[in-house]
Amino acid sequence: VQLQASGGGLVQTGGSLRLSCAASERTFSRLGVGWFRQAPGKEREFVAYITWSSSSTYYPDSVKGRFTVSRDGAKNTVYLQMNSLKPEDTAVYYCAASASPVMSLPGSYTYWGQGTLVTVSS
């Protein structure tokens, strides 16, 4: 499965962006999907997870209430809506998918997108 992340860009503090993660195969619909981010000089950080059925979503405290993950089965795409953005949200954002990942553990994911850069200016 190939994943294509898009939607990054430059936004001011308090602004919003919606990231997309489009998959090449329909098997994507049976995979859990996580979003991660990596700022320069820092480790990759978990920011969101959605189960294959969309029945559950998970977020760390750092983004809870500001970020929302969702998926559109018809479009074979997962979205990350990011609101109330802060300068500390600046990073390259990655989507990843796997059948049964440990959601916050990057090494447990099989498929990765190429990353999209989000820059939040103060």
Keywords, separated by commas or semicolons:
7-stranded mixed sheet; 11 strands; globular; mainly beta; 122 residues; 0% helix
The assembly state of the depicted protein chains is single chain
Distance between the termini: 37 Å
Task: Specify the overall morphology.
Answer: globular
- Poorly predicted runs are none
Number of strands: 11
Query: What's the pLDDT, averaged over the residues?
Result: 97
| Order of secondary-structure elements | EEEEEEEEEEE
> Which class do the helix and strand fractions yield?
mainly beta
Which percent bin holds the helix content?
under 10%
Q: Report strand %.
A: over 45%
Query: Main beta sheet: strand number and arrangement?
Result: 7 strands, mixed
Q: Report the total helices.
A: 0
C-alpha Rg (nearest Å) = 13 Å
